[in-house]
């Protein structure tokens, strides 16, 4: 026997002499019970790979979410091949003594709910190159996640109503309110919040009603609506049940009440200074005086609802001829209905060189409007 052999050492299992160089480093050390075995006996029961007989992946048939651990996770997948590869990689184990391990996988779509995973592993144990191939079927179990189950069951914790003071919200306001709500929910979903959803959106004669998944989100949506469209939010809680601990559970209706006037409305404040073209309904109502062109802002106490009456809208304006500029405070224009020349106040925004100007006719008289609504803001 060569000087590098372990002369006189025999395998306790088969009785053959062990011819192994002393330079070979046994992965588990000399104290490992298997270290006394010859290579033939050692590899006889050796498994390079530990693989389950099958893997089941639970997915939501409605939204595509994946069940991991004790919760559902949005993965944005419709083809679950990549998910199957990932799950297979997590479930396969490689022998602790293996070194220089490499592996690859070939997925085979058997049917809609089954993917056969052929996995080839190579590694080195006791200075011996090994390879092993395992096949693991991955089954796609399609069910309904908690979130989709709640939506299908018409679950909601709050209602967001879009209303307006002394008027009905416009179609544009209703549409924008829904867009704001959907964007808010999308933002929350993007953070992984699976409690974010809108169960139902309905349009009524009074505005829009939206059923929202939680009270917190209902409040957030209502606040965003009035931040953009103006107005204020009111809350009306309703006791619906008690939880297991006896705590009262409330469903809250959040009403986003839009202001009575919107940018583009022409209102008469009956203060002797002439009508106002509304330019903003945020905070205190703001606008432009049609008689002078000066800025107007309601007092803090008046807020968005000063004592006024609506006499028209910018869209009601008609183009008419500017006949003459009398002085710094008056101009002559043609009445668009009677074609008579009328002397009316000259606002600061009027262009004296213009051939025509937009005017709004009301029983209080003719009023020149700004050429554009660039000053109007939401």
Name some characteristics of this structure.
alpha+beta; Immunoglobulin-like; 16% helix; disordered N terminus; disordered C terminus; 378 residues; 23 strands; single chain; 4 domains
Layout of secondary structure:
Blueprint: H1 39-44, E1 49-50, E2 55-60, E3 66-68, E4 71-73, H2 81-91, E5 93-94, E6 99-111, E7 114-125, E8 128-143, H3 146-152, E9 158-164, H4 171-190, E10 198-203, E11 208-212, H5 215-229, E12 232-242, E13 248-258, E14 265-268, E15 276-280, E16 286-289, E17 295-297, E18 309-313, E19 318-325, E20 330-334, E21 341-345, E22 356-362, E23 365-368
Parallel strand pairs: 2-8, 9-13
Antiparallel strand pairs: 1-5, 3-4, 6-7, 7-8, 9-11, 10-11, 12-13, 14-15, 14-18, 15-16, 16-17, 19-20, 19-22, 20-21, 22-23
Helix pairs in contact: 4-5
Please describe what this structure looks like.
- The protein contains five helices and 23 strands.
- By secondary structure, it is α+β, with helices and mostly antiparallel strands.
- The chain folds into four domains: 45 residues, no CATH class; 95 residues, Immunoglobulin-like (Sandwich), CATH 2.60.40; 105 residues; 104 residues, no CATH class.
- The protein has a five-stranded mixed β-sheet with strand order 10-11-9-13-12. Strands 17-16-15-14-18 form a five-stranded antiparallel β-sheet, with no helix packed on it.
- Strand 12 and strand 13 form a beta hairpin.
- Helix 4 crosses helix 5.
- The longest helix has 20 residues.
